[in-house]
Design a protein that fits this description.
It contains twelve helices and 16 strands. The protein has 323 residues and is an alpha/beta fold.
Length: 323
């Protein structure tokens, strides 16, 4: 007889408007039917949302007023991004909603999920706090064991009220209650599903995959054949990317497409061009390290040759095959 799966509820206060890719996000939640999401939102409830995603309609002002009253906060919350700092107290704030669940957590909507249960093994869920970064808590998907100790741990920090008094986001959710727990009770592992310009990839470089693929509950990328728990495309929608310059980033039917290709230009059908895209990027990255001065080809401070360029391209392609 197999082990009983531990129940999980992901808490998602979200206000404003759904992102352009929201239908893909909800579909990826739907392929993880044994995990539940609860949105508290003023956005329209999607007509075809999966059964494991529930919605409670509430305004941002009412949610913040109720949260401050329950947690005894004197400073009002006026910045929606500040709700990320509020995550420290989700266990107490949503004590009624998470009753009966083994784990509660939070996440982001700039994510496409793969097969989460494949990665949430009994060993992983033997910890009180589960993060998929090795340097801190993974805001895109993070889990806490639902016990009185963990729900109320944020109070022992002694800094929560002061943190919430700051009007801007103060990154309180990235460290959370980690200083209070022994290392053996916390799961901190890098899962390489949130590529970021300041985070090293598996090979030690700062160059991650340039294309990712989602296919009905499975996530892969252009660098290797491995399956990933999700793809968190924060870097492409933030100040490091091209998306903010584009009027449209979704170029497919979100409800019907079985396979989705994601890159710096947005969401596209299928993955047939993936190898060409990655090859083109690797060659371009080599060219960017060279420059022409007069009639000389330079790399750094020294003169370069065509042979050196070809050697660098070969190393890039070999590294791609190895990954």
């Amino acid at each position: 007889m197999g082990a009983v799966r531990q129940s999980i509820l992901i808490l998602m206060p979200y206000f404003g408007r759904w992102p352009e890719w929201s239908e893909l996000f909800f579909r990826s939640c739907g392929f993880n039917s044994s995990i539940e999401w609860l949105f508290l939102t003023d956005c329209p409830v999607p007509a075809d949302a999966p059964k494991n995603v529930r919605f409670v309609k509430i305004s941002f002002a009412d949610f913040c007023r109720d949260a401050c009253a329950k947690l005894g906060l004197k400073s009002p919350i006026t910045n929606p991004y500040k709700l990320c700092d509020l995550r420290l107290a989700f266990g107490e704030l949503f004590e009624k909603e998470i009753s009966g669940y083994d784990y509660f957590g939070y996440g982001d909507v700039d994510v496409l999920f793969g097969d989460l249960r494949r990665f949430l093994t009994p060993e992983v869920l033997s910890h009180d706090v589960v993060s998929f970064h090795d340097f801190g808590l993974s805001g895109f998907f993070c889990l806490y064991r639902n016990t009185a100790e963990i729900r109320g741990a944020y109070k022992k920090l002694g800094t929560f009220e002061g943190l919430m008094a700051k009007p801007e986001y103060a990154r309180g959710d990235e460290e959370g209650i980690l200083p209070l727990l022994p290392k053996e009770r916390v799961y901190l592992r890098e899962y390489y599903c949130s590529p970021f310009p300041l985070i090293k990839w598996k090979d030690g470089s700062f160059e991650g995959p340039k294309e990712w693929y989602w296919r009905e509950g499975s996530v892969r990328n252009s660098f290797d054949a491995e399956e990933y728990m999700c793809f968190h495309f924060f870097a492409w929608k933030s100040r490091w990317n091209h998306w903010r310059k584009s009027k449209r980033v979704v170029h497919l039917d979100q409800r019907a497409e079985k396979e989705v290709r994601i890159n710096a230009l947005g969401f596209h059908r299928g993955s047939s061009k993936s190898a060409l895209y990655d090859l083109r990027h690797r060659i371009a990255s080599v060219g960017a390290s060279y420059r022409i001065e007069g009639r000389r080809l330079k790399k750094g401070a020294h003169d370069a040759s065509l042979g050196e360029i070809m050697s660098d391209i070969g190393k890039q392609l070999k590294r791609g095959r190895a990954q």
